[in-house]
Design a protein that fits this description.
single chain, about 325 residues, alpha/beta, 3-stranded antiparallel beta sheet
């Protein structure tokens, strides 16, 4: 197992975003912050190495070679859960990562969309049931997804129907951040053109990816977030190898013709994306999930269940929330 790479959050270049205060983060420094991420994308786009590089440790071991006799048969999608305790900029983060293994690997992926939606809704339903209890569990662990990292195949053309349908169906339930997996397979010009094509499709189909500019109350943060929007979709290159060169320990991906330093911002967006996910925007992603996405879901759920509040009637109606669907087994 290679040695862990040094923390990169303190070596941000001028391209990186400016650290800004967060009351949510400060309150969580002592007790720790609960944070949930889901990884979704077809096999072969680097989800395993992304998670290992994100956490700066080997969370997922290399997969065993496939059986040649069954290699042509796509496995059904399943949810693999990994828990990692980290410390970022003085704050303890209890990170849970759910990997949607097998998504998009079959000829008909309709069931994958429903599985993902059911899983996300089940986490909302757990909170809704917990809120309805007379005596709540003070140690309840919130499993609501705060961000979904969606890996786009580096086709060099545009979004596929699979990509469009997933973002359309799940965008109202979770913060979706699109990334280009294995971006090192594209040249600099191809990558720039592909990013433009992806953003053109997002605008054309009005796909609900995460909007970093949702909070317009802070002018400085708004300018910063507008700059971040220019990098969507983030180009991602990850690795398992750490080498010692004249500049110290660096994470690299080797090729017959040379290497890529994944912490070099001129070669990919991984450093910026990691800083956003685990440092500067972690509170924003959590707050948007709880205050916007969950509240919208809760309102719809209660309206369908007949428990919507009547704005014209000041009378409060007490009702027990009906039993909701149980959490899916991972």
């Amino acid at each position: 197992m290679p040695p862990s790479a040094p923390s990169i959050s303190s070596n941000m270049s001028s391209r990186a975003i400016t650290p800004r205060p967060s009351s949510y983060r400060y309150k969580s420094e002592k007790r720790g912050m609960t944070y949930n991420i889901m990884l979704v994308g077809q096999s072969g786009l680097g989800r395993r190495t992304f998670l290992n590089t994100l956490c700066e440790r080997e969370v997922i071991l290399p997969a065993e070679p496939p059986n040649p006799d069954t290699a042509n048969v796509a496995d059904p999608m399943k949810f693999d859960t990994y828990e990692v305790n980290m410390e970022e900029d003085g704050t303890r983060v209890s990170l849970t990562v759910i990997d949607a293994a097998g998504f998009g690997d079959g000829l008909d992926n309709t069931s994958c969309f429903k599985q993902l939606q059911d899983y996300i809704e089940a986490q909302f339903d757990e909170v809704l049931v917990e809120e309805s209890r007379i005596k709540r569990n003070r140690r309840y662990r919130d499993h609501r997804l705060h961000v979904l990292i969606y890996f786009i195949a580096p086709t060099g053309h545009s979004l596929r129907e699979l990509d469009i349908e997933l973002i359309k169906q799940l965008g109202e339930y979770v913060n979706i951040i699109p990334v280009i997996g294995r971006a090192d397979t594209l040249t600099v010009d191809e990558l720039a053109a592909f990013k433009q094509n992806v953003m053109r499709d997002i605008d054309f189909y009005k796909l609900p990816v995460y909007n970093f500019c949702w909070d317009e109350s802070d002018a400085d943060a708004l300018k910063e977030n507008r700059d971040i929007m220019d990098f969507i979709p983030f180009s991602v290159v990850t690795c398992d190898e750490v080498i010692d060169n004249e500049f110290g320990m660096v994470r690299v991906r080797r090729y017959p013709w040379g290497t890529i330093e994944i912490d070099d911002e001129s070669q990919c967006d991984f450093v910026l994306l990691r800083y956003i996910l685990l440092n500067s925007h972690i509170a924003d992603l959590i707050n948007y999930t709880e205050d916007v996405l969950y509240e919208n879901y809760r309102t719809r759920k209660l309206e369908v269940g007949g428990f919507a509040e009547n704005e014209e009637d000041d009378t409060e109606h007490d009702a027990e929330t009906p039993a909701l669907s149980a959490k899916k087994q991972m």
